[in-house]
Amino acid sequence: MNKLEHLQKLKLKSLEGSGQNAIEKQHSKGKLTARERIEKLLDKNSFVEFDKFAQHHCNNFDMDKKIFLGDGVITGLGKIDGRQVYIYAHDFTVLGGSLGITFAQKICKIMDLAIKNGKPLIALNDSGGARIQEGIISLAGYSEIFYKNTKASGIIPQISAILGSCAGGSVYSPALTDFTFMVDEISHMFVTGPDVVKTVMAEEVSFDELGGAKVHGKISGVSHFISKTEDECFFQIRKLLTYLPSNNLEDSPEIDYFENKDLSYLNEIVPENPAKPYNMYDVINAVIDNDSFFEVHADYAKNLIVGFARLNGKSIGIVANQPNTIAGCLDSKSSVKGARFVRFCDAFNIPIITFVDVPGFLPGKEQEHNGIIIHGAKLIYAYAEATVPKLTVITRKAYGGAYCVMSCKHFEGDLNLAWHTAEIAVMGAEGAVNIIFRKEIEKDPSKKDEIIQNYKEKFANPYVAAEYGYIDDVIEPSETRIRLIQGIEMTRTKRMDKPKRKHGNIPL
Predict the structure, then answer these.
(1) Within a 10 A sphere around the Cβ of 410, how many other Cβ atoms?
(2) Helix residue spans in 318-371 (DSSP H)
(3) Which of 89, 402, 465, 466 is catalytic?
(4) Among 99, 225, 207, 206, which residue's Cα sits nearest to residue 162?
């Protein structure tokens, strides 16, 4: 066999994994192989593989008889919609996708290249965890990956898809990335699996109940997106990237877009009665470019809406209270959800538009015990620290501390607008008069309605805030789109210099 034939033989061998039986077993679980996943996610024929001939050097426990080219992970670069990305995919058909030191070194090389070249990094996770046979060096491999995840944070977008098992220490790499995708009934993430839980806690729990896609998408908040199939997951990843820059020094992709929308119907969409619910999605979708809203964390903390959209073809981030869910109150979960999203947008120069209709923070023992104070402070910190363009529209309620938290003018907001329906006050009218005019009402309860009406006319409106410059303008709802477009144009060249420091101390 000559050298060329030898090379061709090795190339073919590197494509085989651990053989056809292992591939069929993967398919029988309803899962794609690592190479099939890469092929479906990336542009056709764009993948360039690295380190296909790499292999482990472990001799413990007969591992010298279990050597496969590539060592259970496929790494390289490719393109999505013509834009370069770096990618790695665990190959579960090879030693259960377990991570050893060679496996980790391959991943670290790709991570370094992504950081140096300023390109997004995508991880397709399907692994049994650390390779026990390699002992401490497998843990060293994980540690190096975690370090590089942290190093890359805020420099390049990092995206993780969980497409099978992700257990033990391996869960922390996806948790360190910017966005995590999971597929229902296929994806599982947990620090300890059901068998360990049963042994230690005497608790019977299934894989899905412990760490399935719905658990992490709706309850824990670990997952940002839940997909029904792997194909849908890949479609969502591709769509997400259309809103994001390749790195923190570039702008997000723009598209040519012009639409002269008639938004006169918005004047009727928000009821003046502060107790009456409505759907904030109707407001968002009216204002942004048609069909451009891409929600993040859609199933988690539904009282706060976050996601990406386009305004006149430009990528923006949206944060909005949802009045039809617990009246739009902020709570512990929604505060963390909002803070994380705001910080991502700030890191990657994506303007933030905030739609405000919030009566306050959710009261009660449960919220206090869950740390509403510290979690609310995270949202304050995120908005206050953000230097990207910040545009705010108060549609109706903006009461108390929640007014402050939701991107108020005092956090160096660039454009703060209020609809004519806005009520900006320390609290709602009824609660306020019960405190201020308690004695008068006790003497003559019949005057309560009149007192409430007088309070509303004097305080529960946007004009007092406008008098002090805390609101830049009071507008009709139908003007919202054009005013926000003007605001984005106004802030295109925004620059803010902050005092030099190592970093702040966000209340974690």
Answers:
(1) 11
(2) 332-347, 365-369
(3) 402
(4) 225
* Strand bridging mode 188-190 / 304-311: unpaired
* Options 70, 168, 360, 428, the catalytic residue: 168
Contact (CB, 8 A) for 400 and 375: no
Q: With the CA atoms of 454, 457, 461 and 466 taken in that order, what torsion angle do they form, in degrees rounded to the nearest 10?
A: -120
Catalytic residue flag (residue 428): no
Q: What is the DSSP letter of 133?
A: G
Rounded Cα–Cα distance for residues 391 and 472 (Å): 11
Q: Which segments of the chain have a pLDDT < 50? A: none
Per domain, the residue ranges of the chain are 3-241, 266-422+461-490, 429-460
Residue 130 CA: distances (Å) to CA of 23, 151, 165, 491: 21, 22, 12, 48
* 21, 230, 396 from 186: Cα distances, Å: 20, 9, 42
Q: Which CATH superfamily is domain 266-422+461-490 in?
A: 2-enoyl-CoA Hydratase; Chain A, domain 1 (3.90.226.10)
Which position among 118, 169, 313, 400 bears the catalytic label?
169
CA atoms of 469 and 481, how far apart (whole Å): 21
Helices marked H in 95-152 — which ranges? 101-117, 136-152
CATH class of the domain defined by 3-241: alpha beta
Q: What is the DSSP string of 459-474?
A: TSSSHHHHHTTSSSEE
pLDDT at 58: 67
Q: Annotated catalytic, 401?
A: yes
pTM: 0.93
State both tokens at 503.
Answer: 């970093």
**Which structure tokens are listed for 92?**
């579960």
Main-chain dihedrals φ then ψ at residue 12, nearest 5 degrees:
-65, -40
Q: Is 504 a catalytic residue?
A: no
Task: Please count the residues of the chain.
Answer: 508
| Helix (H) / strand (E) containing 9 | helix 3-15
Asked whether the CA dihedral 316, 226, 126, 207 is positive or negative, the reply is positive
- Check for a shared fold between 3-241 and 266-422+461-490: yes
Say which of 135, 371, 401, 431 is annotated catalytic. 401
402 is an active site residue? yes
- Measured CA to CA, the distance from residue 45 to residue 38 in angstroms comes to 10
Closest CA to 419 of 295, 272, 298: 272
Where b means 16+ CB within 10 Å and e means fewer, 350-361 reads bbbbbbbbbbbb
For tokens 């764009």, name the residue: 46
Query: What 3 state SS string does 415-446 have?
Result: EEEEECCCEEECCCHHHHHHHHCHHHHHHCHH
